[in-house]
């Protein structure tokens, strides 16, 4: 039934039975519109049908304090402008950054907080100047939704390093609509076309959501430090980042070695493509590996002494920290000097590079291993991540929100 004209016809029915709240909010008339024509399907509707591009209020799941519990919450989404698109979010995965943020580890967030920067959904509306997406396409949104577009870093496809301040997907000052940005634990997002990623048809959509942060975060160092086939690549930590790091580097042809603190992850590591896997506590293994790595990636989300791993690098090589976004511990200037090793930081990646990891994963048949949960389970799932009990990425089925 069309909400605008109370008429039931084929043109007004939602597709594939998707008569869920997001679609109803977006407006059935918009769904029936021809591709690339954003709003209304007929002149009879022109005056009173709700447009898919209109400002709306959207169901989300929010944290209201640092306790780790989540509850339903309605948030505003701005009207889509000419260069914006509207995405009905289907899957949103839980990144450890979401947990750090609600716990206040990086400073107190603005509550209510709607996290989520790994989301995949379906385009339900496009502005008049959008060229790369059509209604019905699949799209992803990652860690950022805006940047100045004119500074040296933005012009070098490094929007995440924008000199005028990147707008991150949640808990960031929203320069377009004021207030704060809200992330993917919600039914719908309005995003600039330039900050949306194309998700190829036919892929496992839920398994692609984690590529939007964990995937690009682990892929970018592989690119920047130019990991080559046959080179030895050490991955420290086997959480959400580590698992994707192993899959992506193995697909590049590297010889991947995992270091974990969890005995039950040793076999998992090999399943994901690692050639070898060791416990940190295995002193013999640590001794044997000294000076053998071309590149290492630390995905551990807390600070820990890094010098034992810096010792595993070959001369002049680099350990890249992407997990512990805190003061790092235990690097020893003298020891790093002997081998002229580097300790580097890296955080997410630019939009073009994010598209590259999505295309790379699609080409190689890679997706994150995940466990689907309902929105009601977000709090419990986050606790399992904190307890290191998560063997796979938790993906929230946002169609249930
Ligand atoms: Zn993340
Ligand atoms: Zn910039």
UniProtKB/TrEMBL annotation:
Organism of this sequence: Celeribacter neptunius
Cofactor: Zn(2+)
MF-aspect GO terms: alcohol dehydrogenase (NADP+) activity; zinc ion binding
Protein name, per record: Uncharacterized zinc-type alcohol dehydrogenase-like protein
Family: Belongs to the zinc-containing alcohol dehydrogenase family.
SUPFAM superfamilies: GroES-like, NAD(P)-binding Rossmann-fold domains
Keyword terms: Metal-binding, Oxidoreductase, Zinc
Ranges for domain Enoyl reductase (ER): 68-396
Pfam family membership, one: ADH_N
Gene3D superfamilies: Medium-chain alcohol dehydrogenases, catalytic domain, NAD(P)-binding Rossmann-like Domain
Signal peptide stretch: none
């Amino acid at each position: 039934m069309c909400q605008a004209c109370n008429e039931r016809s084929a043109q007004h029915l939602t597709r594939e039975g998707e008569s869920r709240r997001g679609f109803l909010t977006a407006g059935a008339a918009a769904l029936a519109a021809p591709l690339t024509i954003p709003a209304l399907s007929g002149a009879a509707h022109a005056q009173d049908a709700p447009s898919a591009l209109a400002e709306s209020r959207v169901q989300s799941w929010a944290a209201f304090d640092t306790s780790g519990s989540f509850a339903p919450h309605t948030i505003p989404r701005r009207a889509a402008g000419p260069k914006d698109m509207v995405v009905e979010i289907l899957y949103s995965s839980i990144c450890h950054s979401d947990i750090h943020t609600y716990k206040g580890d990086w400073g107190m967030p603005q509550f209510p907080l709607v996290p989520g920067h790994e989301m995949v959904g379906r385009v339900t509306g496009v502005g008049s100047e959008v060229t790369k997406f059509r209604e019905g396409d699949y799209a992803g949104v990652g860690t950022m939704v805006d940047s100045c577009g004119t500074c040296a870093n933005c012009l070098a496809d490094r929007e995440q390093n924008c000199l005028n301040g990147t707008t991150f997907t949640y808990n960031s000052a929203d320069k377009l609509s004021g207030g704060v940005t809200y992330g993917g634990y919600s039914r719908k997002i309005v995003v600039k076309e330039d900050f949306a990623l194309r998700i190829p048809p036919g892929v496992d959509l839920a398994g692609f959501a984690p590529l939007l942060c964990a995937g690009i975060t682990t892929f970018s160092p592989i690119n920047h430090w130019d990991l080559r086939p046959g080179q030895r690549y050490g991955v420290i930590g086997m959480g959400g980042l580590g698992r994707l790091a192993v899959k992506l580097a193995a697909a590049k042809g590297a010889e991947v070695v995992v270091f974990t603190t969890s005995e039950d992850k040793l076999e998992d590591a090999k399943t994901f493509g690692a050639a070898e896997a060791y416990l940190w506590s295995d002193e013999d293994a640590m001794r044997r590996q000294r000076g053998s790595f071309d590149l290492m990636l630390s995905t551990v989300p807390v600070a820990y002494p890094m010098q034992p791993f810096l010792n595993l690098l070959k001369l002049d090589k680099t350990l890249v920290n992407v997990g512990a976004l805190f003061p790092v511990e235990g690097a020893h200037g003298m020891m790093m000097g002997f081998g002229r090793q580097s300790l580097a930081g890296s955080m997410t990646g630019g939009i073009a590079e994010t598209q590259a990891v999505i295309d790379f994963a699609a080409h190689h048949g890679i997706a994150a291993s995940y466990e689907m949960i309902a929105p009601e389970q977000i709090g419990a799932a986050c606790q399992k991540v904190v307890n290191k009990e998560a063997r796979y990425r938790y993906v929230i089925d946002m169609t249930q929100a």
